[in-house]
Design a protein that fits this description.
The protein is of the alpha+beta class. It has helices at 12-24, 51-76, 89-115, 145-156; strands spanning 3-9, 30-33, 136-142, 161-164. Strands 2-3-1-4 form a 4-stranded antiparallel β-sheet, with helices on one face. The longest helix has 27 residues, at 89-115. The model has no long low-confidence stretch (mean pLDDT 81).
Length: 165
Amino acid sequence: MTQPILAIFADSQEAVATARALRRAGLTRLELLSEEPLHAAIADEEPKSRIGIFAVLGGVLGAGAALWLTIGTAKGLAINTGGMPVVSGWAYGIIVFEVTMLSAIIAALARMIWEAGLARPGAMQHYDAAVTDNKIVLVVNCEDEQTRQTAEQLLADTNAEMIGK
């Protein structure tokens, strides 16, 4: 069972330096909670964002769905067009463009929420109110007593306020 240690820092540079020192010591289950993103601390092993790929795929799927919807609707209705083509590129281009953009935005937003951890169960279980006071909370998830002692020794040398839950 993991036992988290919460270290509250007033200075972001000290929090980042401590997170890097904990990484070098072999502690890999770290979380940094702050008002502003601090990607530099654990970015070495964090996967790159895939928001752009999801936006492109959402746009492609949205364009396909819009084409299917507009062309399928026009061909499915028995409309007398007086010899004119049933499917008009200019008229349907606007619909396809708008649905493409809407789908890209929705896909990017959904992926952003996922990558931020807001959609995952238990993602905010270690949140502390100190984050709203412009402080940085470093959460160290300790899996056994040895990692807990290592983390406590490294955190003792900092100016952090430690909270053991």
